[in-house]
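Hello forum,

I keep getting stuck at the same step: I have a sequence, I want structure tokens, and every attempt I make locally crashes halfway through. Rather than fight my setup again tonight, could one of you with a working pipeline run this one for me? It's a single chain of 127 residues.
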Amino acid sequence: FIHAIVSAGSSRAEIEQAFQQVNVNEKHSRLLAESIISRYPELCVHMKQSVHKLFSHHLQDFDWSLRLVLSSDKLSATREPVLLLSFALVDQDSRPKTVDIELNKSDLDKLLGSLTQASQSVQQFKI
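Reply #2:
Ran it on my machine without issues. Output:
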């Protein structure tokens, strides 16, 4: 609840109203809002650190190539485009890790849909 309030950058009045909507009395709503506003920078830092602990690797670089598969062991003429993605990741101790992914058209469409949804979610909770 507090995460959503801090993420939205709510004003004191909006915070008080949010607490009152979940049946917190007016006096306590005012005190809670005052506490959140006064500790807002610390709450932001804490939220960023907790997210960083969940995702210790970050993207350093990526590469992609598009290839056309002309045949396979099952079919003599498939002519299927395949996207090869290579992600260079680095953990918090600067150790590199490479992740390679091969995607056909339907897998790529699913990935792009998931990334679009993730981007929209991040924009909602952007600090």
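Residues 105-124 form the longest helix (20 residues). If your local run keeps crashing, start a new thread with the error log.
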